[in-house]
Amino acid sequence: MPDIQQELSRCITCKREIDRAALKCAECGSLQNWRRHLQFSATILSLIIAIISVSGLVVPMLVQTFKQETSAIEASLRSITIKAKSRPYSGHILIESYVIEARLLLTNTGMKPGFIESAVLQLEGKHGLIGKAVLNISSSEAVVKPDTFVLIDTEGKLETKKSGVFWFGPRSRDSSLNIDIQTLRLIVTTINHNRQQELLEAVQVGGQWTVVF
User: Fold this and answer.
1) How far apart (Å, rounded) are the C-alpha atoms in residues 57 and 49?
2) What is the pLDDT of residues 33-49, one digit of tens each?
3) What is the 3-state secondary structure (H, E, C) of 8-58?
4) Contacts of 77 (CB under 8 A, 6+ apart)
5) Residue whose C-alpha is closest to residue 156's, from 127, 132, 186
6) In which domain, by residue range, is 115 found?
7) 80 lies in the same domain as 182
8) Is residue 59 part of a domain?
9) Of 68 and 44, the one with more pLDDT
10) Fewer Cβ in 10 A, N or C end of the chain?
11) What is the pLDDT of residue 163?
12) 77 and 159 both lie in a single domain
């Protein structure tokens, strides 16, 4: 009976000599065919699941860590309307004062509530300050809770360097007045949770505004 010569190869994992046709290494137990990739994929999949699970807990903790433990208020100007208080005078319109109606957006990204102490809107033209208005904010609107934003509709009388008559024009349905505003500057004074006063300034490029009578 002829001798049968066994063809040998080396184990993919431990490098020991095994039968070339063997599906599994008798020494280390590792699979020698395509099935070995399934075991590797299962390990990687388990690792990915573990990382996702841990990140779901760690990321919120990191966000809370980097958040300020006081209030962090930001302010911006969303819109303004300029209205004129006027009265008829000898067939003309006499404008006595201007009122600014403004919509403010206040955002608190901190962990504690903050308080709006005051808000002033300055109108600046080509030759400097046109006027400024102290905006009225009620005590209920002045508190900005953490992780929230609020829209506040407010108004204030526009104080200018001039006194008395601001504009004197013909009385007609087409009467209008345009004001060329170069810059709108919103200055908000806040008090944070630690009772420290902070000054916020939001600058917006202006344009030409039509006064509403």
Assistant:
1) 13
2) 656 655 555 566 677 77
3) EEECCCCCCEEECCCCECCCCCCECCCCHHHHHHHHHHHHHHHHHHHHHHH
4) 102, 103, 104, 105, 121, 184, 186, 202, 204
5) 132
6) 73-210
7) yes
8) yes
9) 44
10) N
11) 44
12) yes
